[in-house]
Write a structure and sequence with these properties.
The chain is an alpha+beta fold. It contains 7 helices and 6 strands; from the N terminus they run ββββββααααααα. It folds into 2 domains: about 90 residues, no CATH class; about 130 residues, no CATH class. The termini are far apart.
C-alpha cells in the first residue's frame, strides 16, 4: 500500500487556503464537481520530502489515507477529493532524512547572538572562494531535485534565511548601531547580517542533501556556519 503525506501550517490548517483543519481519523469533506482547494482538490504527496511544495517551514506533518481512484498526479503530488489523517509525524521529516538537524539549525539561526552575527563576515570571508561556494550550491540544488527533495531544500534554504533576518532585526547590537549615523558602521552591520544569512541558508541546504553530495561540497557549504556557531559563548 502506498503511503501518502500532507504538510499543514503550524496551526493545523491547510497551506492553500488556511481554512481547513483535518482531525485524526476523520475524512475531510468530500470535494466533487466544483473543487475548492487550488480549484482542483486536496493535495497530498507520496514522498514525505515533497510535502512542502506550496508550503513552508515550520509545519505540521501527517501520514494520510486517500480513497481508491485514478486521481490527478504531478510528479509526487496527488490531488484527491478527500483524505483523512492516519497519524501525525514529527514535522522535521518534511525536511528530508536529515531534517532533524536542519530544523535544529533553523532554530539556532533564530537565536544568533550579537557576537555571532558580528563574527559572520570573518567566518564567511575565510571559508572559501565564491566560485567554489557557487558550484557547491548548484550541486546541492541539483541533488535535491533529482532525489525528489527539492521542496525540502527550498523550504530549509528560505527558513534559515528568514530566521537569521529575525535574529539580526532584534539583536541588541542592531538597535545600537541603527541609532548611529555612521556610514561605516551601517556598512559593517549590513555585511555581517548578510554573511550570517548566507551561512545559515547554505548550511541548511547542505544538510538536506548531505547524503547526496560529496564531503567536499558539504564542507564548503557548511564550514562558514560551523565557524559562526563556534563563537557562541565567547
Amino acid at each position: 500500500m502506498t503511503n501518502y503525506y500532507k504538510a499543514l501550517r503550524p496551526d493545523g490548517t491547510d497551506f492553500a487556503t488556511g481554512t481547513t483543519r483535518p482531525l485524526k481519523g476523520r475524512w475531510m469533506p468530500r470535494i466533487d464537481g466544483k473543487l475548492i482547494m487550488c480549484e482542483r482538490g486536496y493535495h497530498v504527496s507520496d514522498a514525505v520530502a515533497e510535502t512542502l511544495v506550496g508550503g513552508s517551514w515550520p509545519c505540521q506533518l501527517a501520514r494520510v489515507e486517500v480513497p481508491e481512484g485514478d486521481w490527478g498526479r504531478e510528479s509526487h503530488k496527488l490531488v484527491v477529493p478527500t483524505y483523512r489523517v492516519a497519524e501525525w509525524f514529527p514535522a522535521w521529516q518534511a525536511l528530508g532524512p536529515n531534517g532533524e538537524a536542519v530544523a535544529a539549525l533553523i532554530e539556532e539561526a533564530r537565536n544568533l547572538t550579537p557576537e555571532q552575527i558580528a563574527a559572520a563576515r570573518d567566518a564567511t570571508r575565510d571559508a572559501t572562494r565564491d566560485a567554489a561556494r557557487d558550484a557547491a550550491r548548484d550541486a546541492a540544488r541539483d541533488a535535491a531535485r533529482d532525489a525528489a527533495r527539492y521542496a525540502a531544500w527550498y523550504a530549509a534554504w528560505y527558513a534559515a534565511r528568514d530566521a537569521t533576518r529575525y535574529a539580526a532585526r532584534y539583536a541588541t547590537w542592531y538597535a545600537a548601531w541603527d541609532a548611529t549615523r555612521d556610514a561605516a558602521r551601517y556598512a559593517a552591520r549590513d555585511a555581517a547580517r548578510d554573511a550570517a544569512r548566507d551561512a545559515a541558508r547554505d548550511a541548511a541546504g547542505a544538510l538536506v542533501v548531505r547524503d547526496l553530495i560529496t564531503p567536499e561540497q558539504f564542507e564548503t557549504l557548511y564550514k562558514p556556519w560551523a565557524a559562526i556557531a563556534a563563537t557562541k559563548g565567547e
